Amino acid sequence: MAAPVPEVPPVDEVPPVDVPPVAVSVLGPVQATVAGQPAALGGPRQQSVLARLVLAGGHVVSTDRLLEDLWDGEPPPKALAALQVHVSRLRRALEPAGGRRSGATVVVSVAPGYRLQLPREAVDAWLFEDLVARAHASDDVATRRRLLEEALRCWSGPAYAGSADASWAAPEIARLEELRLVALELRADADLSLGRAPAVVPELERHLHDHPGREEAVRLLALALYRSGRQGDALAVLRRAREHLAEELGVDPGRGLRDLEAAVLGQAPALDLPAPPSVPLPAAPAPPPPPPAPARPAELRRLLELAGEGTHVVWVAGEAGAGKTTLVEAAAAQLRGTGWRVVEGRCPEVDGAPPAWPWTEITRALGGPPLREDTAFWLARAVADRLRDALREQPLLVVLDDVHRADELTLQLLRQVVDSLDDRPLLVLATYRDAEDGEALGATRAALASAGARHLQLRGLDAAGIAVLARQHGLEDAGDEELRLLRERTDGNPLFVRELTRLLVAEGRGAARTGVPTGVRDVLRRRVERLPGPAVTALRQAAVLGREADVDVLAAVAGRDVDELLDALETAVLAGLLDEPAPGRVRFTHALVRDVLYEDTPLLRRARVHAAALAALRDQDGVDAATLAHHAVAAAGPRTAADAVPYVVAAAREAGRLGAAAEEARQWASALRLLELAGRRGMVEELDVLLPAISAHARAGDVVAARAQQRDAVRTARRLGRRDLLVAALAAWDAPLVWTVRDDGAQDPELLDPLLELLETPAGDDLPGDVRCRLLVALVREVEGVDDERTDAASAEAVRLARAATGPDAARLLCAALNVRAYAALGPHLAAVREPLAEELRAVATAAGMTDHRAVAHWLLFLAASARTDLVAARRHVDTAVALADAGQLGHVLGALQVFSGALLVLAGRSDEGRARYEQVAAHLVETGAMNGGLMALVGRFVAGFARGDLTPVVPELEWLHAAMPGALTDAVVLGLLDAGRTDDARAAWAVRRPISRDYYWLASTTLRAHAAARLGDLATARRVRDELLPWAGRIAGLDSGTLVVGPVDDALAAVADALGDAGAAAAARRGAERVRAELAAQLAAVGV
Description:
Layout: E1 22-25, E2 31-34, E3 37-38, H1 44-55, E4 61-62, H2 63-70, H3 79-94, E5 107-110, E6 113-116, H4 124-137, H5 141-152, H6 170-193, H7 197-210, H8 215-227, H9 231-248, H10 255-265, H11 297-308, E7 313-318, H12 324-337, E8 341-346, H13 357-366, H14 376-391, E9 396-401, H15 408-420, E10 426-433, H16 439-448, E11 454-457, H17 463-472, H18 480-490, H19 494-507, H20 511-514, H21 520-529, H22 533-545, E12 548-550, H23 551-558, H24 562-574, E13 578-582, E14 585-588, H25 591-599, H26 603-617, H27 625-635, H28 641-658, H29 661-677, H30 684-699, H31 703-720, H32 723-730, H33 749-760, H34 769-783, H35 788-804, H36 810-824, H37 831-848, H38 851-867, H39 871-884, H40 887-907, H41 911-927, H42 935-948, H43 955-964, H44 970-979, H45 983-990, H46 1002-1016, H47 1019-1029, H48 1049-1060, H49 1063-1086
């Protein structure tokens, strides 16, 4: 007999479930509630949209798939528009308080379609699956029973009622129904384990009646009857099951039922024990999708390795669409998961952003008050302080995206921030397009090389990477032919792969055989052409506003209703051309998308959109001056150009306030072009633009443009007969002197003559001291290297006047005066005060926060340390100068550093390497238009030849120079001709030698003259030059110039002593030269040469 029936404990009560803000039901009629109240979901097709999104389980459903499913494979011509209407109405029903401008949060647009964005517990079908899975995984019977009860309460009728006949719904309905039956049987099994056999018999009888072929239901009912003391009924259930299976299917019961029947007949004791659940569970609901597999796993590993090694800067380079941003985002996600904090700043792809915009984004992300600093120096310190505070808590990753578009202030701050935080766990990942690597970025990369910056170059994806991207964007089962096509057409460019994949998916794989666009821009154009006309128009208007746009502003620019505009933009979002980075904003998914649309917009229409943008933005608060200037310039024509000038002037002044000289110069140049377009050049108002433009271009390092503008300003002032404007034009140049600014060193009468008239005649006697000081500084620029006496007198008076000056500009005026005086002291007559002047300049500039003069001070200290062969101190000062240099100075300072390194290589006996370094720098100087840049290659070849003892290979170049500038480098020419065995030609050249200018080349030039005089037997000249050189014994001639390095002075003294027949002096000089070389070798080893 069966065991006595135990007392049945009460069924666990199911706790109430919190009602989510938005809940969707498909286990019964398709319904939704918002804040507990029913939502109006519209007609059957609109409900089907929601049901189809539920079926996707939170994944994206493409618009193509939705159209195919909702219209049974035959969507009408305007089905996409109808779908958008249904989605729009669903959003209004499910997000009544949100509004379209705030962005969808439930039915969200994600290329290439839509997805339902709700918690799992907010959708009954998702919750049901999760509860069943949790029950199946639980080892506690009571918990399992409670979870199954809660799962079954999710049902209120047949799944997806109203869509049962739809082909897309039928498989899911069948799967859910099977899972429901399994859950019911699992609950009954749990009841049996809890000793509730009598209570489950009625439910199991009804269940078996409805599903007579389910052997698990038979097993459970027979077992429940047996444990309820109804052995005969249990055997009857097993007998009927055997008959049903034989009649309906022609099969015998499974082994489980046959064993159970035998056990019931034998009243097996095992039947009295709770049986373990034996119901097989259908496949568990799919877990959330893992992050997409990286298409560049090797590069990702390398970035993570560099982060672990303590690297401070990694440059990630590649062509447009190479996947730079995607790679960096993947690295950032992994580092964030290991405890790093990540902040990002994006360099704007279009003009119109204020200087240093990426650092503004970064500091905002770090929190704290907005930065208010008004100079580059203080701004760099404030940014570094903000980063330092963040680094106290955790390692910090700073992402700078698209730095090929970075303004000079952004790059300057990067250099200074890295320099000031070199002992902290900071990593900067900077992406750029290598094909758009400008001079400023190249200089910054060179400057940061000493900080251990690393470089990662992205090439095309390999076959595996292409396959990964193809699968991620719709070609899940791409074959070898399609992958080969993608490889051949795209060269592995990830953006091209992605867009071409989407095109093949959208147009059908047959498109691969009927003609595929050959370039990524053509692919993008073809994808745009597939959009409705209103969407294309909206995209072109958005492209005028930039990579990212505010929807309200775009609506004002387009003159369209916001809801109508959102409908148009929605299509572009679904197509993957736009995304929504924040409520009320849209952003092109790649800069190339925006570029193609902008370039394909006719110029006249583009100008009109820019004008509309200016009208929409100018009255808004907080719009940057640079943004307004950008639209004003782009919209300007001959009739409106004058009206645009004030916007550009405001942007130029804002850039100048921040110390962004290159951006300031660009804006002033735009203002000048606008005045020319308006026919207003040559008037007083032009000088209002020209004068600040001179200073900006000079500080930006564009001395050619600055001098041309200064000449224009002087001419205009003289034509107008305005002495005040003439003085202002001559004094407008406000940039430190680090290199000659005159082309080939020639003096310019247009600038020099009025300066001499104002400074050396009674015409300028009434000038205030500060004005006279500025003119004296300008005079030094015009005469240095040519007129030593004037240079000395003018620089000395400038310092005296500057020390007496007062007022807000007194510190900068003193810096300018000390700068030119220290520059003059590079010659021999002021050598004793050279270093003290540079130290004073450094102190004044540091106290006043004038980074440009501080950088120059360290450059001058570098030269001073080089003069005494203290290469360790020289390297320290030049590294500081590089870190502090602004955009206008950086190229020169880096060039000086590279030339200096070439000179050291020659001194170390590596002449060929040293010559190559000179030539490399010379090529760069020529490309950038630097004054006398081309001569640097000749200097390098001369220095290397002199060190080897044979100048014959450079004689043709020396002769050309001698013909072009007779007497300029006579000593070098003579030595070359002597090496070539052309003594008569050497004597002819010697006859036209000039006095040596007492500038920074004096020691090198005088040393060469001593060698030349000794070899020619000009003993009178040799004696005179020897006397001049004796105080400089023990030095490397020319090392203080940083360029023209011609060995120990003692070598020249020995050559002269030999010529004069003084063997003792010659031997002493040679011993001195050996001591110099030994000291030099130790210094070279100390700096790693």
